[in-house]
UniProtKB/TrEMBL annotation:
This is Anti-anti-sigma factor. One of its GO terms (molecular function) is protein serine/threonine kinase activity. Pfam families: HATPase_c_2. Keywords: Kinase, Serine/threonine-protein kinase, Transferase. PANTHER family: ANTI-SIGMA-F FACTOR RSBW, ANTI-SIGMA-F FACTOR RSBW-RELATED. The keyword Transferase applies. InterPro entries: Anti-sigma-factor_SerPK (IPR050267), HATPase_C_sf (IPR036890), HATPase_dom (IPR003594). The keyword Thylakoid does not apply. Signal peptide: none annotated. Residues 17-139 form the Histidine kinase/HSP90-like ATPase domain.
Amino acid sequence: MASQKEQNYANQFRMQIPSNPRYVSVARNFVYNLARQCNFSLHDSADLKLAVGECLLNVIKHAYLGKTNYPIFLEITALDDRMEIRIRDFGVQKNLSTIQSYDPGDYREEGIGLFLIRRLTDHFYIDQSGRGNKLILTKKK
């Protein structure tokens, strides 16, 4: 049964990892290698790798409160001009208005992960409209 708009899965990748920091490198390396395969520059591929790693570590630390036995879902869509990455968890939602913006002149490191993610991607959004969190990253070629 085809819908009005056919979903194209030719360039869509999905993976699930446990909320254990030891598996963050698996997802980071997958994203990096996929970006290189899709003709992203070495620099942009490394940016995506770092941004995804920061997102995953934030999920483990803040959404799952350090618990290592919960699922984290990644959906990656490789398009001609960009890569879109959605990271989904079913953990705790943090009040976004309480997240402090990182100030590079401040000695504390609170908020540096989100600061880096925003700097390394072209678009970053946190969707908390349902249960858990969905982090959406976009990087253009």
